[in-house]
Amino acid sequence: MKYIRRMMSFLAFRAVIFTVAAAALVCAFYIAFNLGNAYVLISEGMEKRVDVALTRENATDLNNYFTGSFLNDDPVLEYAFSDVSPYLPYTITSYDYKVTVESISVWPWGNEIQCEIVEHVDNITGNVKAAYASSVSGKPAVWSSGRYFLRLTKQSNGQWKISAIHQDPTYKDTSTGK
Asked: Does domain 2-167 sit in CATH 3.40.50?
Protein backbone atom coordinates (compact mmCIF):
# COMPACT_ATOMS: atom_id res chain seq x y z
CA MET A 1 0.00 0.00 0.00
CA LYS A 2 2.92 2.30 0.79
CA TYR A 3 4.31 1.94 -2.74
CA ILE A 4 0.95 2.59 -4.39
CA ARG A 5 0.51 5.77 -2.34
CA ARG A 6 4.00 6.93 -3.33
CA MET A 7 3.34 6.14 -6.99
CA MET A 8 0.00 8.01 -6.92
CA SER A 9 1.65 10.98 -5.23
CA PHE A 10 4.44 10.95 -7.83
CA LEU A 11 1.94 10.79 -10.73
CA ALA A 12 -0.29 13.51 -9.23
CA PHE A 13 2.69 15.83 -8.76
CA ARG A 14 3.81 15.26 -12.36
CA ALA A 15 0.26 15.84 -13.64
CA VAL A 16 0.04 19.15 -11.78
CA ILE A 17 3.43 20.25 -13.14
CA PHE A 18 2.43 19.24 -16.67
CA THR A 19 -0.90 21.10 -16.38
CA VAL A 20 0.75 24.28 -15.10
CA ALA A 21 3.37 24.14 -17.86
CA ALA A 22 0.72 23.53 -20.53
CA ALA A 23 -1.38 26.43 -19.21
CA ALA A 24 1.65 28.73 -19.26
CA LEU A 25 2.41 27.75 -22.85
CA VAL A 26 -1.19 28.34 -23.94
CA CYS A 27 -1.23 31.75 -22.24
CA ALA A 28 2.10 32.66 -23.84
CA PHE A 29 0.77 31.63 -27.25
CA TYR A 30 -2.36 33.79 -26.91
CA ILE A 31 -0.37 36.77 -25.61
CA ALA A 32 2.04 36.48 -28.55
CA PHE A 33 -0.84 36.07 -30.99
CA ASN A 34 -2.66 39.13 -29.64
CA LEU A 35 0.56 41.18 -29.54
CA GLY A 36 1.28 40.32 -33.16
CA ASN A 37 -2.22 41.35 -34.19
CA ALA A 38 -1.95 44.55 -32.19
CA TYR A 39 1.40 45.60 -33.70
CA VAL A 40 0.15 45.03 -37.25
CA LEU A 41 -3.15 46.79 -36.57
CA ILE A 42 -1.45 49.76 -34.93
CA SER A 43 1.27 50.26 -37.55
CA GLU A 44 -0.93 49.74 -40.61
CA GLY A 45 -4.05 51.38 -39.19
CA MET A 46 -2.38 54.52 -37.93
CA GLU A 47 -0.46 54.94 -41.18
CA LYS A 48 -3.64 54.48 -43.19
CA ARG A 49 -5.35 57.11 -41.02
CA VAL A 50 -2.58 59.61 -41.82
CA ASP A 51 -2.69 58.66 -45.50
CA VAL A 52 -6.43 59.28 -45.68
CA ALA A 53 -6.09 62.56 -43.77
CA LEU A 54 -3.39 63.78 -46.19
CA THR A 55 -4.85 62.54 -49.48
CA ARG A 56 -8.61 62.18 -48.81
CA GLU A 57 -8.47 58.88 -50.72
CA ASN A 58 -9.56 55.33 -49.83
CA ALA A 59 -11.31 56.35 -46.61
CA THR A 60 -13.37 53.14 -46.65
CA ASP A 61 -10.15 51.17 -46.03
CA LEU A 62 -10.16 52.58 -42.49
CA ASN A 63 -13.06 50.24 -41.65
CA ASN A 64 -10.53 47.39 -41.61
CA TYR A 65 -8.62 49.00 -38.73
CA PHE A 66 -11.05 51.17 -36.75
CA THR A 67 -14.50 50.73 -35.27
CA GLY A 68 -17.31 52.62 -36.95
CA SER A 69 -18.10 54.59 -33.81
CA PHE A 70 -14.51 55.81 -33.61
CA LEU A 71 -14.43 56.83 -37.27
CA ASN A 72 -17.66 58.81 -36.88
CA ASP A 73 -16.12 60.90 -34.09
CA ASP A 74 -12.46 61.10 -35.17
CA PRO A 75 -11.41 64.77 -35.04
CA VAL A 76 -8.40 64.19 -37.32
CA LEU A 77 -10.55 62.83 -40.13
CA GLU A 78 -13.26 65.42 -39.54
CA TYR A 79 -10.66 68.18 -39.92
CA ALA A 80 -9.03 66.47 -42.92
CA PHE A 81 -12.32 66.32 -44.81
CA SER A 82 -13.30 69.88 -43.96
CA ASP A 83 -12.82 72.89 -46.22
CA VAL A 84 -10.14 74.28 -43.88
CA SER A 85 -7.79 71.31 -44.16
CA PRO A 86 -4.25 72.56 -44.85
CA TYR A 87 -3.74 69.62 -47.23
CA LEU A 88 -6.78 70.32 -49.43
CA PRO A 89 -4.85 72.50 -51.93
CA TYR A 90 -2.21 69.81 -52.47
CA THR A 91 -1.86 66.49 -54.17
CA ILE A 92 0.33 64.76 -51.62
CA THR A 93 2.99 62.69 -53.34
CA SER A 94 5.03 61.37 -50.41
CA TYR A 95 5.71 61.52 -46.70
CA ASP A 96 7.79 59.67 -44.12
CA TYR A 97 5.79 57.85 -41.49
CA LYS A 98 7.04 56.28 -38.29
CA VAL A 99 5.11 54.86 -35.36
CA THR A 100 6.80 53.58 -32.21
CA VAL A 101 4.92 51.44 -29.72
CA GLU A 102 6.20 52.53 -26.32
CA SER A 103 4.06 50.27 -24.14
CA ILE A 104 1.37 47.68 -24.60
CA SER A 105 -0.82 45.78 -22.19
CA VAL A 106 -2.49 42.55 -23.29
CA TRP A 107 -3.92 39.54 -21.49
CA PRO A 108 -4.70 36.21 -23.18
CA TRP A 109 -8.27 36.21 -21.88
CA GLY A 110 -8.98 39.90 -22.46
CA ASN A 111 -11.07 41.62 -25.11
CA GLU A 112 -9.16 44.89 -24.86
CA ILE A 113 -5.58 45.98 -25.46
CA GLN A 114 -4.17 49.26 -24.13
CA CYS A 115 -1.07 50.79 -25.68
CA GLU A 116 0.93 53.96 -25.93
CA ILE A 117 2.50 55.03 -29.21
CA VAL A 118 4.47 57.94 -30.63
CA GLU A 119 3.70 58.93 -34.20
CA HIS A 120 5.90 61.01 -36.51
CA VAL A 121 4.98 62.22 -39.99
CA ASP A 122 7.81 64.10 -41.68
CA ASN A 123 8.85 65.36 -45.10
CA ILE A 124 5.36 65.82 -46.52
CA THR A 125 5.69 66.74 -50.18
CA GLY A 126 3.01 67.53 -52.70
CA ASN A 127 2.04 69.51 -55.73
CA VAL A 128 -0.36 72.43 -55.61
CA LYS A 129 -3.64 71.61 -57.36
CA ALA A 130 -4.46 73.80 -60.36
CA ALA A 131 -7.54 75.27 -58.69
CA TYR A 132 -5.40 76.61 -55.83
CA ALA A 133 -2.33 77.71 -57.85
CA SER A 134 -3.01 81.43 -57.41
CA SER A 135 -3.79 81.31 -53.69
CA VAL A 136 -1.24 78.80 -52.33
CA SER A 137 2.51 78.68 -52.52
CA GLY A 138 5.10 76.70 -50.70
CA LYS A 139 5.11 73.31 -49.10
CA PRO A 140 2.25 71.49 -47.39
CA ALA A 141 1.76 72.10 -43.69
CA VAL A 142 3.79 70.17 -41.13
CA TRP A 143 1.99 67.30 -39.38
CA SER A 144 2.03 67.53 -35.60
CA SER A 145 3.78 64.53 -34.14
CA GLY A 146 2.27 63.17 -30.98
CA ARG A 147 1.99 60.56 -28.27
CA TYR A 148 -1.28 58.66 -28.31
CA PHE A 149 -3.01 56.24 -25.98
CA LEU A 150 -4.89 53.63 -27.97
CA ARG A 151 -7.53 51.11 -27.00
CA LEU A 152 -8.04 48.11 -29.24
CA THR A 153 -11.19 46.05 -28.84
CA LYS A 154 -11.94 42.54 -29.98
CA GLN A 155 -15.06 42.53 -32.12
CA SER A 156 -17.78 39.86 -32.05
CA ASN A 157 -16.20 38.22 -35.12
CA GLY A 158 -12.86 37.89 -33.29
CA GLN A 159 -11.15 40.70 -35.22
CA TRP A 160 -9.27 43.42 -33.34
CA LYS A 161 -10.00 47.07 -34.15
CA ILE A 162 -8.84 50.40 -32.76
CA SER A 163 -11.77 51.81 -30.79
CA ALA A 164 -10.26 54.88 -29.12
CA ILE A 165 -7.33 57.25 -29.54
CA HIS A 166 -6.46 59.92 -27.01
CA GLN A 167 -3.61 62.35 -27.63
CA ASP A 168 -1.24 63.21 -24.79
CA PRO A 169 -1.42 67.02 -24.58
CA THR A 170 1.83 67.20 -22.57
CA TYR A 171 3.95 65.53 -25.28
CA LYS A 172 6.76 67.67 -26.65
CA ASP A 173 8.47 66.38 -29.78
CA THR A 174 12.22 66.36 -29.25
CA SER A 175 13.14 64.42 -32.41
CA THR A 176 15.04 65.97 -35.26
CA GLY A 177 12.47 64.81 -37.78
CA LYS A 178 14.50 61.88 -39.03
From this structure: no
